Amino acid sequence: SYVLTQPSSVSVAPGQTARIPCGGDNIGIKSVHWYQQKPGQAPVLVVYDDSDRPSGIPERFSGANSDNTATLTISRVEAGDEADYYCQVYDSGSDHRVFGGGTRLTVL
Amino acid sequence: EVQLVESGGGLVKPGGSLRLSCAGSGFSFSRFSMNWVRQAPGKGLEWVSSISGTSIFIYYADSVKGRFTVSRDNADNSLYLQMNSLRAEDTAVYYCARDPADSSQYNWLDTWGQGTRVTVSS
Questions:
Q1: Size of interface A-B (CB pairs under 8 A)
Q2: I need a labelling partner for A29 at 20 to 30 A (CA). Which of B76, B83, B89, B97 fits?
Q3: What Rg value do the Cα atoms of chain B yield, rounded?
């Protein structure tokens, strides 16, 4: 089965840029989606199809995908961005959705 | 407003059964594929099952295949997860989540419920 690998944690100072990687074998040919989950809350979609944003998601959230790594970038990080972030793809070989292990973003 | 509301969680003994429900509102329920995703305490998200709008296509994670059954009632705007032979490792918050369409081409989860907690313990 397809495996997505994320670092367990990323830290960034307020106002700086956070980059959260998601690794997978040739992930660049897949569509990658990203979710934000704050403590005690349900996940929220923040980026879909590699780099598109749902309505209501700030432009500070962006995504890119190439080769073996997809990246969620959060510009001008705010305290309210502190959360767990998960990448997700669709494995067409198994028709399964696959999540990465999640990355906790800490705003210093 | 698009909304998903889960119910049916609770405490169950190992080997027992439980049926979760998810009520959809604010959208044309039958036109969207639906999913169950779970999260064990302190752990990450795990996709559990998907069902297409007309129930033609149904998929399960290997960890639940043969024990869980997903179904839907479009007339009632409801999604279900029948969970049998429950194990301690099935303990989790279970979320229902909607695809943005009824096609695998659109395979992200654009709307989530608040979750229902399932605890499997003796």
A1: 64
A2: B97
A3: 14
